[in-house]
Amino acid sequence: MPNSRFRYLEDIATADAAFEAYGSTMEELFENAALAMFNVMAPLELIGNESVRDITVSADSQEDLLHNWLAELVYLKDVHGELYAQFKVKIDSVDVLRLAAEIRGDTIDSVREHTHTDVKAVTYHRLAIERRDGGLVATVVLDL
After folding, report:
1. What is the pLDDT of residue 12?
2. Res 136: pLDDT
3. Separation CA 16–CA 6 (nearest Å)
4. Which DSSP category does 2 fall into?
5. In this structure, what DSSP letter does residue 7 have?
6. How many Cβ atoms from other residues are within 10 Å of residue 78's Cβ?
7. What is the pLDDT averaged over residues 66-86?
8. What CATH homologous superfamily does 6-135 map to?
9. C-alpha to C-alpha distance for 3 and 10, rounded to whole angstroms
10. What is residue 95's predicted lDDT score, i.e. its pLDDT?
11. Where do runs of H (alpha helix) occur along the chain?
12. pLDDT at residue 135 above 80?
C-alpha cells in the first residue's frame, strides 16, 4: 500500500475526479477520504481552522457511511461557504454504523484565489471499501 494518505485515479471518469484513500483504521480511512475530496477544491495547507463544527452521520453499511460522510461535508461546504482540512472521526456500531466527527476549516473566500474546482456531489459510481495490503482502501468518484 502506498505511504500517502490518498492518490488520484486517472481515466475513471472524464468530467469527475476519482481517488483512492488509505487508512489503517476505518476512522483514518474516512479522514483521508475527506482530505482527498477537499484537496480537489483547494490546497489543504492553505485552508485555515477558524471554523469548528461537530457532525454525525449514520448508515447500514461502510460504503453508505462513507458516502453519507462525504455528502454531508459537501452540504456543509455549500451551506456555510467553508472548506475543511482537519478531521477527527470516531465510528461506532451498535444498531447501525454511526460516525461522529469534529471538522475544522475556513471560509472559501479566505482561499478563493487558490481554489481549483468545486465538488457538486459524491457519487456511488465505483464506491468501495476493501482490505488491501494490510490496510483499508476506499475508492470514491466525485461529481465536479
Report:
1. 65
2. 97
3. 16
4. -
5. E
6. 13
7. 98
8. Archease domain (3.55.10.10)
9. 19
10. 86
11. 26-41, 62-80
12. yes
3-state secondary structure string across 50-67: CEEEEEEEEECCHHHHHH
CA distance 102 to 129: 22
| DSSP SS3 for 85 | strand
Find, among 60, 80, 79, 59, the residue nearest to 69 by Cα.
Answer: 59
CA distance 99 to 138: 16
The CA distance from 114 to 108, in Å, is: 10
- What is the 3-state composition of the chain as percent helix, strand, coil, each rounded to the nearest 5? 30, 40, 25
C-beta of residue 33 within 8 angstroms of C-beta of residue 142: no
Of 9, 15, 1, 6, nearest to 143 (Cα)?
Answer: 15
CA-CA distance, 144 to 138, in Å (whole number)? Answer: 19
Q: Report which of 141, 31, 142 is spatially closest to residue 84, judged by C-alpha positions.
A: 31
Please, what is the average pLDDT of the chain? 92
Sign, CA dihedral 66-69-75-77, equals negative
Element (H, E) at 5: none
Rounded CA-CA distance 53/71 in Å is 15
